[in-house]
Design goal:
194 residues, 54% helix
């Protein structure tokens, strides 16, 4: 279920980027006048600015999580230099090496130590956050993109997805809601890759 747990909330983020909704949510701080459609269009064009870096960072976190939780035993994990592993993965995934090592193997700091998901129940499941984004994008582009405020589609989504929660396999929920097997095409399209 970790692959799907974030999908409903991630999908709701899409509505904030719908032109009419964005315009209704935003106004000039002083005059309270709604922002212009021109500004809305410019904001929407910037939506995926730096998205590739954000996606690579999610891949880094997921890869680190799988690597650490994939160790053979607790003793192997105890002997693992997490700082060095984090730095090596970050250089490999981002393609950017950090500053020279300080002698402690910590080039980028200890960011991995601040990610609570690693010890808060995800246990080698952080990759699910990015997978959920793929599912949420598929649902939004398939069902809502053409008419985000369609009440019938909204009711269908509430009944087939939200009301069921974790009561059944998410792949079955997605297949019934989408009318087909879920795929990553909409995710790639949203990033301008398809």
């Amino acid at each position: 279920m970790w692959d799907f747990v974030e999908a409903p909330s991630q999908m709701l983020e899409n509505w904030c980027w719908t032109p009419d909704v964005l315009q209704s949510l935003s106004s000039h701080w002083k005059t309270k006048e709604p922002i212009s459609r021109d500004l809305v269009d410019k904001l929407i064009k910037t939506r995926h600015l730096n998205e590739s870096l954000a996606t690579l960072y999610q891949i880094l976190i997921g890869t680190f999580d799988l690597t650490v939780h994939g160790a053979d035993s607790h003793e192997t994990i105890k002997g693992l230099n997490c700082g060095r592993l984090w730095n090596e993965l970050r250089a490999e995934i981002h393609g950017v090496k950090g500053p020279e090592a300080t002698g402690f193997g910590i080039e980028w700091g200890n960011r991995y130590a601040t990610i609570g998901h690693f010890v808060g129940g995800y246990d080698a499941g952080y990759y699910g956050y990015l997978f959920s984004l793929v599912f949420s994008t598929d649902m939004f582009y398939t069902a809502f993109k053409a008419d985000p405020m369609n009440p019938e589609v909204g009711k269908r989504y509430r009944k087939l997805v939200l009301e069921r929660g974790g009561s059944m396999d998410e792949n079955l929920i997605l297949k019934e809601f989408l009318g087909r097997e879920p795929n990553s095409e909409a995710f790639y399209k949203s990033l301008g890759l398809a």
